[in-house]
Amino acid sequence: MADPTQRAREHRAWYFYDWANSAFVTTTATVLFGPYLTAVAETAACGEAGTTDDPCHGDLSVLSVPIAAGSVAAYTVTFATILSAIVLPIVGAIADRTSRKRHMMAGFAWTGAAAASSMVFVAGSNWGLGVFLLIVAAICLGCSMVVYDAILVQIAHEEDRDRVSSRGWALGYLGGGLLLALNLALVTLEPFGLSRSDTVRISLLSAGLWWAFWTIVPFRGLRDRPPTGVERIGGSPARRAFGQLRETLRHARGYPQTLLFLVAYMLYNDGVQTVISASSIYGNRELGLGEDVLIVAILIVQFVAFGGALLLGRLAGRFGAKNIVMTSLVMWTVVVAASFYLPENEALPFIVLAVAIGFVLGGSQALSRSLFSLLIPRGKEAEYFSLYQAAERGTSWFGTLAFGLAFQLTDSYRWSVLVLVTFFIAGLVVLSRVDLRAGIVAAGNEVPRSVIGRR
Q1: Transmembrane residues, as ranges (predicted)?
Q2: 85 CB neighbour count, 10 Å cutoff
């Protein structure tokens, strides 16, 4: 481990990848691209995009299977996640065997940023290009985050991880919020005679460029370290990666608390990520709110989440990280259930719920990441985080699939949202059964005070 000055310098560089990719997560994945892709799909299905007062209910045909235009965005995220389930574990296995983690992280980041920037060309009825670019960007984001999270274990002691993880999430929300504020002005004002479609596409371009530019900071500020604890497996790099992954899965049953925590996380984070990715569609298509209102709501979430991540990170040291995460899940359940009753064409109730979501969003995600890092056997950080990332930042698929199916069956996004409550309740129940202390000891890590809180 580096000296304190070098370690603090690397912490600051590491934070900036959250700052970099959060612009894509907020501007593109959360706010603009879902409704925009839906409108493009509706243009292809109905000849012209539906309005919020009279939306299109036509179907598209994919391999002779009818797909509701309103479900295209949710199904696209679902498909990207299925591909991620295949790709991410292999990426994790390779990352654990290399000393060039920062190069891997940056390579995936810049590829994803190129796809995100290319969304500026999605227009008219060209929904297929939008689907392809979203899949590429989502998978590259997941791959880069696998390596990024694994680097956390290398640069931070067990006692520091709640703090470092929380600051990274907080800076990410701040960076995403700042770019979103600029895009809010652009979309709302429509300057220079630009249409709403033009301003949306320019905003998508800005998010990709932001992601690419700020990735330079962690790429230059982090240092390479040799891999540790990996099995010696012969053959080609691909064979070695598959071999290590096979060995990890074979021995994973020896870490039951790690697997139980992962199950809990995948359940409740399915709900979190689906709320994030589908909130703009719900507000726009079900509640009749315009993009400007949605951007204001998400902008509020970003800045509230900045403070919430830091505050919940502090509370974790006093009351225990697991207790704080469980409390946040109770709040998530209440907020999502309340969203079922939101009135149409009224922005204020939607904004109030956005504030509540922002408060618990950053802290629950940051503390989950740091808790999971303590449950990973040394030398397998990227492999285990590849499984973790399968449910992270919009790559959950049970939630998006349930959301899309509920809409297709009921023709109402209200029931789609209400279905998500089950994910938070199920995750809370499973998390309550995780013995963190036993899991940390079994993984060979030190038990930090933040796990149980101050006595």
Answers
A1: 72-95, 107-125, 131-156, 168-187, 199-217, 259-281, 293-312, 324-342, 348-367, 387-407, 413-431
A2: 16
Count of alpha carbons within 13 angstroms of residue 32, beta-carbon side:
33
Question: What's the token pair of residue 298?
Answer: 């998400």
Is residue 263 within 8 Å of 430, Cβ to Cβ?
yes
- The sign of the CA dihedral 11, 12, 13, 16 is positive
Q: The CATH number of the domain where 266 resides is what? A: 1.20.1250.20
Residue with tokens 């990973």: 376
- Give the separation between CA 270 and CA 276, rounded to whole angstroms: 10
Question: Tokens standing for 145?
Answer: 């985050």
* Domain extent for 110: 4-451
Structural domain count of the chain: 1
pLDDT tens per residue across span 93-130: 788 778 889 999 999 999 999 999 999 999 888 888 99
For the segment 348-367, what is each residue's pLDDT rounded down to a tens digit? 999 998 898 888 887 788 88
Q: Cα angle vertex 254, ends 392, 329, to 5°?
A: 35
Q: At what angle do helices 256-281 and 291-319 cross, to 10 degrees?
A: 160
Residue whose entry in the numeric block shows the structure tokens 């990848």 = 17
Average pLDDT of span 391-408: 71
Range list of H helices, 190-290: 196-214, 216-221, 237-251, 256-281
**Secondary element (H or E) of residue 65:** strand 65-68
Q: What is the DSSP string of 7-51?
A: HHHHHHHHHHHHHHHHHIIIIIIIIIHHHHHHHHHHHHHHSSPPP
Instruction: Compute the radius of gyration of the chain from its Cα atoms.
Output: 21
Mean pLDDT for 16-38 is: 87
